[in-house]
Design brief:
tRNA binding; Poly A polymerase head domain-containing protein; mainly alpha; metal-binding
Length: about 160
Amino acid sequence: GRHTNIRYTKNWKIDSQRRDFTMNSIYLSSDGTLHDYYNGQEHIADQKLQFIGDVEQRVQEDYLRIFRYYRFLGCFKNPKINKEDEIVLHNYCKRALQHLSNELVRKEILKMFDNPFPIHSFCNNNNKLEKNFWVMATKENFILHNYKLGLTKCLNKIEVLF
């Protein structure tokens, strides 16, 4: 679900374990030393978005990670997609939409447009001319709940990209 029970610590290695992606677990100390416990720099250079730990477990902890995954794909010009990760995300997408508020999903989608390559957030990674499954599932969910703000001020912007 969306269990955001955060425990604060001064130990960066422990803190990095709760992060969703390796690129979000890079720390810079006040003396300029970089601490990268999960090879986040390498993954960024390879344009690879890598979950920390088991993907299914991380998604079950917080369904918003599905939408964050697609948001961060838009940071890369040529993102490398892990097909096994995408299967897990696909399997949990509709469940995520049942548990997350429409407003939270809409806000995450709007952030996707601010990325350098937003098309990668929205397209099917096997066929760049098609929308990703999560876009269609979100549209169905917004229609089901008559969430006009999400339809008219958010999802309609995706159409411009295709």
